[in-house]
């Protein structure tokens, strides 16, 4: 049994999928199905890593940031003010720079500014646009599926197994969340509890893979298109299953572009 739990496919795929499936369904009546994304992520952290935060490495900061953002998103979900969305984007970008702090400090002065600003802009961009999908469960689920698989797949090709599992866990959890909607033809509650941890974890993991592995920085450009692609109009009279398929195809095309760009640079993943 332990050997099965140690398999990467179980840790980064099956376990987060099952955990998200259970949480999304059980918390539906409480309108907290969005927590499925952090449930899937924590399942992978438990199996593939640990919840120890000493020493506080960049990858452990990502775990801490994901857990904290999921808790913070619950009360933030009740605030509908227009000013909150850009504020969250700025705060998310600053938090991502904090994640990379030690790595950035090892760079030359010019590189610190360049990478720091790039990190802030990329993660802030994801937080801003994913937050705009928080009231659209199918679009958020499709974007989460693509952003997780794209970030995780690119990180794997870029020779970072742990960051790859982080991303793939998000994709698997979003896939479970989306699958329930496709089967029942009923939208699940979403909210910031889904979009905020997703964008922060996926964004920070991808930037960390750029700084510490072989993921090319321009692959982030393809990933940044995913939340915009999820806003493309699709037929709304054909049922949620067709909307999910169409949106997933569109967003996964962007994710595939990021993986392809990484493969061109790094070659096949070290499996």
What's the order of the H and E elements?
A: HHHHHHHHHHHHH
Low-pLDDT ranges: none
Largest sheet: none
Cα(first) to Cα(last) distance is 22 Å
Overall shape: globular
Radius of gyration: 17 Å
Q: What structural class is derived from the secondary structure elements?
A: mainly alpha
State the share of residues found in helices, binned by percent. Answer: over 70%
Strand content: under 5%
SSE topology:
Layout: H1 2-5, H2 8-26, H3 36-48, H4 58-76, H5 84-99, H6 101-105, H7 109-131, H8 137-157, H9 161-184, H10 192-212, H11 219-224, H12 226-229, H13 240-266
Helix pairs in contact: 2-3, 2-9, 3-9, 4-5, 4-10, 5-7, 5-10, 7-10, 8-9, 8-10, 8-13, 9-10, 9-13
How would you characterize the overall build of this protein?
Helix content is 75%, strand content 0%. The protein has 271 residues and is mainly alpha-helical. The chain has one domain. The chain is globular and about 55 Å long. It starts with a helix and ends in a 5-residue tail after the last helix.
Relevant terms:
mainly alpha, 271 residues, single chain
Brief overview, please?
The chain has 271 residues and is an all-alpha fold. The chain has 13 helices and no strands.
């Amino acid at each position: 049994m332990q050997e099965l739990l140690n398999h990467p496919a179980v840790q980064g795929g099956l376990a987060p999928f099952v955990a998200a499936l259970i949480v999304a369904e059980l918390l539906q009546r409480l309108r907290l199905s969005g927590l499925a994304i952090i449930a899937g992520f924590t399942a992978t952290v438990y199996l593939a890593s640990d919840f120890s935060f000493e020493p506080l490495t960049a990858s452990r900061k990502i775990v801490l940031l994901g857990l904290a953002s999921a808790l913070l998103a619950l009360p933030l979900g009740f605030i509908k003010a227009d000013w909150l969305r850009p504020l969250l984007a700025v705060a998310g970008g600053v938090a991502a720079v904090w994640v990379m702090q030690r790595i950035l400090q090892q760079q030359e002065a010019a590189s610190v500014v360049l990478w720091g600003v790039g990190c802030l802009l990329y993660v802030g961009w994801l937080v801003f646009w994913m937050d705009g999908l928080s009231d659209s469960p199918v679009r958020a689920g499709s974007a989460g599926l693509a952003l997780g698989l794209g970030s995780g797949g690119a990180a794997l090709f870029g020779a970072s197994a742990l960051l790859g599992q982080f991303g793939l866990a998000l994709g698997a959890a979003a896939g479970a969340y989306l699958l329930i909607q496709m089967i029942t033809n009923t939208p699940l509650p979403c909210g910031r509890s889904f979009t905020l941890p997703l964008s922060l974890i996926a964004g920070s993991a991808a930037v960390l893979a750029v700084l510490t592995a072989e993921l090319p920085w321009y692959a982030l450009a393809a990933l940044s298109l995913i939340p915009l692609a999820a806003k493309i109009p699709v037929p709304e009279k054909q049922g949620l299953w067709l909307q999910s398929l169409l949106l997933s195809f569109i967003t996964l095309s962007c994710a595939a572009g990021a993986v392809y760009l990484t493969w061109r640079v790094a070659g096949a993943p070290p499996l």
